[in-house]
Amino acid sequence: MAKERHSLTVSDLEKIASLSAGYSGADLRYSNVREEHYCNHNSFCPAQARLQLVTRLMAKERHSLTVSDLEKIASLSAGYSGADLRNVCAEASLGPIRSIDAALIERVRADDVRPLEMRDFEGALGRVRSSVSPADLERYPVLSITLTINNLKEARECLKKAITDQNIPLDLAASFLYYYFETIVCQNTETWKSYGVDIAPKDANVTPLSLLTVRQVQNILEYPKTEQVRQTDDPWMAIYVLGIYRCVRAKAADYKSQIAQRITTQMKSVSAAATDMTEAVSIYQSWENNRTYCTLVAAADMFFHRFPNHHLSNMRIGTTGSRYKDCAALMSLGYIMDLLGLDNLSDLFEWVFLNKIGDEIDSMMKENEELCDQYSYFPYQVDLGLVNKSKYSAAANPHFFEFIHLIGCLLRSQRSMNARHICDSQSMDMLQNSACVAYVYSHTFKVTKVYAKDEEELKALQAVEEELSDYDPWHELTNA
User: Fold this and answer.
1) Which CATH superfamily is 328-442 part of?
2) What are the residues facing 458 on neighbouring strands?
3) Can you say how many angstroms the Cα of residue 217 is from the centroid of all Cα atoms in its chain?
4) Please, are residues 269 and 314 in contact by the beta-carbon 8 Å criterion?
């Protein structure tokens, strides 16, 4: 309406608002979710996928659209994303109201507003353009998913039964998460970008699916259902399904049992009726290698890491392992920096005396990587399928990983004592290099007096600290 000439008063606009609230409220709540429907030789074509979306959006609206009309809308909207198509429906829903004479607006009841017609969509398609080009869509991580359920209600009924029977089909679990993620909305407080991709502008409403380009096909299946389920069961069932990710990755039986108990505690905090999680979820071991499931897990964790105060952020109890997955070498770097009390990487790197360690450090420290951006896609590169193999894993950097944890062992760090021994190459040279670092940093201390009686004493302390800050442990070692 802002772009059109009109003579409506404030009261007229309020009347329109009340009419539209009763007429198309569902359409006005759509968030910025990028969906791309694609086809290959054995799946639905783009027009068919768009037809399914339009049909679903119109299911609860009053309209006079025929099947032929819906097919025409799907055809005319070629190249539109899911969010664009939702905007088209929202724009079209205003057509019946706009057709009312302004002079009569005060006397019109909601029941008197005509149903949606094809002409409303033709006008909406002329005003709402595709916001995302095919090239832009390819820049987002891709979620390829087969939806085997029509909607969240059916998914809820089937999943509750499957959890009770301890027999959850993976496609059902993925379909439930997809539909449920559509309902999890949070307002973005600042521009969110990663690797040049505009994830969300400031003040935009986002969902976990906003992080992805969604390529969906439908293959509706019949599953056993239960009616003993409510909408309030959705959060704990989502925690259950996401928690499987963490449980199946735990190898030690005792640890797996502890994780299952922690996840159960989180589910019970949401609903006392939640089903306990047990080590029996090990039957879903294959899920760990399923691209669709892992992408959904990563999207959930990235979303809730960005919005930690969301009331559903406890879902991360099952997804945290996705963050920095297969980045053990990179995580070890942060660990040793903290253990030695270092602030700059150069303070550690100047103690590297072996070329193989240096080569592995160089391979990790590449430009244009978002290592320090906590809201980046970077920590989720493995589960989002952005790389085929992580170059930050212990396996990709065995000498560096061994070097770090040899230092930790010599400094009696339990974490390093529990680390895997994965490299025998240049073992004595590596031990000597590590011993050198451990010796120096076990004989130097960075302490300061925290409190002073008066300003004069504080100044004296600062002078001493400045003198000590010039101290070079390497100088002491080479002149010992």
Assistant:
1) Nucleoprotein (1.10.3610.10)
2) none
3) 21
4) yes
- From residue 264, give the alpha-carbon distance in Å to each of 238, 261, 317: 12, 5, 10
- What residues does CATH 1.10.3570.10 cover in the chain? 142-320
Q: How many CA atoms lie within 13 A of 211 on its CB side?
A: 29
Select the CATH number that applies to the domain covering 142-320 from these four: 3.30.365.10, 1.10.357.140, 1.10.3570.10, 1.10.1200.30.
Answer: 1.10.3570.10
Which residues fall within 8 angstroms of residue 27, CB to CB, at 6 or more apart? 57, 61, 86, 89, 90, 93
CB 3 within 8 A of CB 123: no
Q: Which residue has the tokens 């969604």?
A: 214
Per-residue pLDDT of the chain (480 residues; tens, 9 = 90+): 444 434 444 344 344 344 344 433 333 333 334 444 333 322 333 566 678 888 888 887 889 999 889 888 888 887 777 777 888 888 888 888 888 776 677 777 777 888 999 988 988 887 777 655 555 545 789 999 999 999 999 999 999 999 999 999 999 999 999 999 999 999 999 999 998 888 988 888 899 999 999 988 889 999 999 999 999 999 999 999 999 999 999 988 899 999 999 999 999 999 999 999 987 788 999 999 999 999 999 999 999 999 999 999 999 999 999 999 999 999 999 999 999 988 888 889 999 999 999 999 999 987 778 888 999 999 999 999 988 889 999 999 999 999 999 999 999 999 999 999 999 999 999 999 999 999 998 887 777 777 777 777 777 777 776 665 555 555 555 555
Predicted TM-score of the model (pTM): 0.70
CATH topology of domain 10-136: Helicase, Ruva Protein; domain 3 (1.10.8)
CB 102 within 8 A of CB 16: no
Structure tokens at 269: 């905090």
3-class DSSP state for residue 98? helix
